[in-house]
Amino acid sequence: xxxxxxxxxxxxxxxxxxxxxxxxxxxxxxxxxxxxxxxxxxxxxxxxxxxxxxxxxxxxxxxxxxxxxxxxxxxxxxxxxxxxxxxxxxxxxxxxxxxxxxxxxxxxxxxxxxxxxxxxxxxxxxxxxxxxxxxx
Length: 136
Known about the structure:
Layout: E1 5-10, H1 24-41, H2 46-51, E2 54-65, E3 74-84, E4 87-96, E5 102-114, E6 117-119, H3 122-127, H4 129-134
Antiparallel strand pairs: 1-3, 2-5, 3-4, 4-5, 5-6
């Protein structure tokens, strides 16, 4: 596994629950923000895709919580990408910067709706070609 993108972030107070740790739902926001920033780094605009009738959507998410993050913690969200059939699978891990401990392992399966219909997305195949070729 070789990460293809990394994004540094910091936990905000309001993302924590009464236990003083990041609420589980916020990790999904971190993963989504990382994917969107990755797409932007590749020149892909979600808004433009939608205007063109292409809507990448999440089909399934699996998150394994390892070490909790707390308010003020800085962390690095990393990802790599594989294609399985018509799915683009993002393997996403979050590491706490202070000690490098793994905080979360996530697997996000996405598919594309093209003009409202589930289809293979040749556009994404083109955008991600250099990453998808590495896995072969």
